Amino acid sequence: MLAGLRRRLRLRPRAPPTEPSGAQRPARPCRLFVGANWKCALADVAQADALVDAVRVGWAEGKPTLADVELCLCPPHVLLGRVVERAGAHVRVGAQNVHESVAPLAPGTGVTTAALLRAVGCEWVVLGHSDRRNTYGETDALIADKAHDCLGAGLAINLTVGETRAQRDAGVAIGTVVAQVSAVAARVPEGAWSRVVIAYEPVWAVGAGATPCTPDETQRVHAEIRAWLRAHVGDDAARACRIVYTGSVTEANAESYARLSEVDGFVVGRAGLDAAALLSICQTLVRCKALNA
């Protein structure tokens, strides 16, 4: 596996990507971010071990190229401690969910608090994913409570926002996304925005066979999110917060999004289960940003 990984990670020269017409690259001093949401797609512990080992070794071999990327692996809860131990010093680990605190130390069956996640070595938590919103009925208010708990416990949050096909067709896509951002923004302490990543997930563009969101539309939505942050929270928050794209990102299409000035990285699903593909996407991101600098 590692020999094949090394072959695939050799950088190949490509034509410089071009920025969409009319786009301007804002000056934002932030590190790029790539998250890998493994969901519950792993077959067993051996697969998880092999995957995280390949990522760790590939990451070490990719330095210093990959030093500008913060990479976060998000395994199922039962594997968190194991992945933390194997990931190494340069790869972050995040949880896919957290329980909201109703009362201090309130008991709850089958839940995990932000404090416990931090205790086992987690640094990030995924919040607001469409699976949680649409399948489990999580509301903006509940997600905002979770965000507040996580940030208060010293964790960083990967907030997923995005519209469904019905909302897009109804012309309320931006309104939906802004409402989701606004609910959480109200609970983010001043100075904590460097620990917030907003992942735009057009729900209609996710899944096998789905039509990806076009780069132009992605740029427009990301710009709307940053403009809202600047207008309603402040310039510091708009600069510190990273806005990433998560909509069926692959090795094949990563470059078309990485060249966008308003895209600070990605969260990937299926591509995150392949160490070579994941690290290749990270390298594509770094290369495109360097060419557009």
TrEMBL record:
Cross-referenced CDD domains, in alphabetical order?
TIM
GO terms of molecular function: triose-phosphate isomerase activity
Return the GO cellular component terms, semicolon-separated: cytosol
UniProt-listed Enzyme Commission number(s): 5.3.1.1
Describe the reaction catalysed, as an equation: D-glyceraldehyde 3-phosphate = dihydroxyacetone phosphate
The alphabetized list of GO BP terms reads: gluconeogenesis; glyceraldehyde-3-phosphate biosynthetic process; glycerol catabolic process; glycolytic process
Chain spans, region Disordered? 1-26
InterPro entries hit by this protein: Aldolase_TIM (IPR013785), TIM_sf (IPR035990), Triosephosphate_isomerase (IPR000652)
What is the main EC category here? isomerase
Compositional bias ranges of the Basic residues kind: 1-13
- Metabolic or biological pathway: Carbohydrate degradation; glycolysis; D-glyceraldehyde 3-phosphate from glycerone phosphate: step 1/1; Carbohydrate biosynthesis; gluconeogenesis
The record's Pfam families line, in alphabetical order, gives: TIM
Q: Which Gene3D superfamilies match?
A: Aldolase class I (3.20.20.70)
Which keywords label this protein? Gluconeogenesis, Glycolysis, Isomerase
Describe, as the record does, how this protein assembles with itself and its partners: Homodimer.
**Family statement:** Belongs to the triosephosphate isomerase family.
Protein name, entry field = Triosephosphate isomerase
Organismal lineage = Eukaryota, Haptista, Haptophyta, Pavlovophyceae, Pavlovales
